[in-house]
Amino acid sequence: MLGWTLVFLVVAVIAGLFGFTGIAGAAAGIAKIIFFLFIVLLVISLLINALKGKSPRL
Fold first, then answer.
1. CB neighbour list of residue 8: distance below 8 Å, 6 or more residues apart
2. Residue 10: what pLDDT?
3. What are the extents of the domains in the chain?
4. In 3D, which of 30, 41, 26 has the Cα closest to residue 6?
5. pTM of the model
6. Residue 4 to residue 19: CA distance in whole angstroms
């Protein structure tokens, strides 16, 4: 999921460099949404593992 965020971020940067501000804005917005979704899922996963008493896998 974090990989998709990076893909949309790269698309936004390239589109911004070429002057496609609409595409750049949309791609940056999508990247931001996916990034925050990733953070929320990470926190939920950490909380569930902490409540179950499992130690994190390294």
1. 27, 28, 30, 31, 34
2. 87
3. 2-52
4. 30
5. 0.65
6. 22
